[in-house]
Amino acid sequence: MQKWLFLAVAIVSEVIATSALKSSDGFSRLWPSLLVVTGYASAFYFLSLTLKFIPVAVAYAIWSGAGVALIALISWLVFGESLDTPAIIGLLLIIAGVTVLNVFSRTVSH
């Protein structure tokens, strides 16, 4: 259970940092820039803790896949960016891939 909590914190930290990256305006705004640096530092720290329990390929696939899907959702909801049909299909395929890893792969329980 702890490994999934570490991974969830890593994902949320990365999503917060990436979301703040747009607001940092090329690191010219202090508070969003500090949020970016803190968020990425936290993301990598918790990802490193996750790697004590989950193989790197699986952890990274889940971390990056969930991050991509969440960032796409945030960019649509918060920043008003559009997602066309191919983008939505691609995101659904990423989510399907992460689901297959978690449900069917014996590597995850290693």
TrEMBL record:
One of its GO terms (cellular component) is plasma membrane. It is found in: Cell membrane. Keywords: Cell membrane, Membrane, Transmembrane, Transmembrane helix, Transport. Pfam families: Multi_Drug_Res. The chain crosses the membrane at residues 33-51, 58-79, 85-104. Belongs to the drug/metabolite transporter (DMT) superfamily. Small multidrug resistance (SMR) (TC 2.A.7.1) family. This is QacE family quaternary ammonium compound efflux SMR transporter. It comes from Parazoarcus communis. The lineage of its organism: Bacteria, Pseudomonadati, Pseudomonadota, Betaproteobacteria, Rhodocyclales.
